[in-house]
Amino acid sequence: MFPLNKHPILQKLPNFYPMSHQVSSSIGFLCRDPLYKTEKPYTLRYPTSEGTPRENIKLEKCPLTIFNAFSTATSLETCGFCSIELPTRMSYDDFSDATKIESVYAPETADYLERLLGARHVYVIDYNVHTSSNPPSEAWLIEIDTEET
After folding, report:
1. How many angstroms separate the CA atoms of 118 and 120, rounded?
2. How far apart are CA 106 and CA 100, in angstroms?
3. DSSP code per residue over the chain
4. What pTM does this model have?
5. Given this model, what pLDDT does residue 90 score?
6. What is the pLDDT of residue 33?
7. What pLDDT digit, counting tens, does each position of 108-118 carry?
8. Are 127 and 140 within 8 A, CB to CB?
């Protein structure tokens, strides 16, 4: 087994792209609020009874500059993420077809990650298609089992 950042698949990828692509944004951090000394922060994703707030989250927004993820070599070991190009049989238009995503892209993703990580099983549990009318809200939920058999 290769260390992940030395894996042959990752070695084929270019390790530097110009940092000309950057986006200014913000990130929300939970505020230090006296309320949280007596009540845990929460968000409910279901209807509540009258008078019960769906959340008590108070966020402080901080500025953030996001650079092109390919601008430097990344690895799971040092960064907790890495950028890879996933080969697929899907065309751009295929990503609007849930059946094709579930029958082609999800299995391709699972197979690729199993090989890349040496995982015993990878399960694509959920996904979200992002379009201009459906902007990003959640990431894919993927469970990876790396225990030895």
Report:
1. 7
2. 9
3. ---GGG-HHHHTS-S---TT-EEEEEEEEE---GGGGTS---B-SS---TT--SB---EEEEEEEEE-GGGS---HHHHS--------S--TGGGG-HHHIIIIIHHHHHHHHHHHHT-SEEEEEE----BTTB------EEEEE----
4. 0.47
5. 92
6. 93
7. 999 998 988 88
8. yes
CB neighbours (10 Å) of residue 7?
19
Integer Cα distance of 55 and 44 in angstroms: 6
Tokens of 139: 């990431």
- Asked whether 124 and 110 are in contact (CB, 8 A), the reply is yes
Two structure tokens written together for 147? 């225990």
Structure tokens at 119: 């995982």
C-beta neighbour count of 105 within 10 angstroms: 19
**Residue 46, amino acid:** Y
Torsions phi, psi of 141, nearest 5?
-110, 115
Angle at 143 between CA 43 and CA 41, to 5 degrees: 15
pLDDT tens-digit map of 51-101: 889 999 998 988 888 776 665 677 777 777 777 778 899 998 888 888 999
